[in-house]
Amino acid sequence: AVGLLIGIEEVSPEKQVQCLTALLNPLCHQIESLVMGAEAQGLEESSPRAISLLQIVVALNMVTKGFNERLVMISRPTIGVMLKKTLDVVLQLLVSFPNVRPLRSKVISFLHRMIEILGISVLPCIPIALRQLLVHNEAKDMVDFLVLLNQIICKFNSSASGILEDVFPTIASRMSVILSQDAFSTGPAGNTEEMRELQELQRTLYTFLHGMVTHDLSAVLLAPTCRQYLETIMQLLLFTSCSHKDILLRKACVQIFVKLIKDWCTTSKADDK
Fold it and tell me: What job does this protein perform (predicted)?
């Protein structure tokens, strides 16, 4: 509620800075203090420190609710600088505690919000955050990771190419194992929670790939660091487009193929590709 009240343009810039300083500084200092203590003693998911950190990140997220990109990056850039510094503090939680899943989830939520309102200024922060999010992640964690990447793609288009080239090899290698053709059962086991998580991951992966090719990022697949995984991705797309029971997923895979053909087979370098 506080964020919605102070984030509107009717509030003067001076008053906004004053209110944000009073809210952000103590919360950031609390994070830094809790991190120092937790690094020395370890951090369990249910510990008081972990719960306090969760609550602080949620509070910071709420404080930003009333702000938008035009206000904080164009009209009142001082506020953008304050929020960027806050993001830097919050992202340290991923570096210090990458395996505390409830905390990681809240940090991802905050990062989603910061991408929305800070725009291009968050790009330098993202690679480190993404690398930490790839530490010890399971199928459900990969879903959250790919959803975040999809937001980055939709927000920044071709400006995200360097980020994608950095993380795509890890994504492709893990997906080829997790989503292998024999990983899906057609029997009773197909109704298990684990199987539902795999199916959700599969849908999210193809949404991610569809986002890449429709936002002028298909060249990432041909980058030197990514090209070795091209055949693996193509086999996944081919298998799904031909045999998956979900017609919408089959259609999405066909659309990806069509876009790749347009991108790669209608230029002067088509033969090489």
Answer: tRNA nucleus export receptor which facilitates tRNA translocation across the nuclear pore complex.
DSSP string computed for 89-154: HHHHHHHH-TT-HHHHHHHHHHHHHHHHHHGGGGGGGHHHHHHHHTTT--HHHHHHHHHHHHHHHH
- Do residues 178 and 121 touch, judged by C-beta distance below 8 A? no
Domain residue ranges in the chain: 1-131, 137-273
Kindly report the pTM of this predicted structure.
0.89
Residue 256 has pLDDT above 90, yes or no: yes
Residue 184 has pLDDT above 80, yes or no: no
SS3 label, residue 68: coil
Neighbours of 175 (CB within 10 A): 22
Burial label for 149, CB within 10 Å (0-12, 13-18, 19+), is buried
Give the Cα separation of 53 and 82 in Å (integer): 20
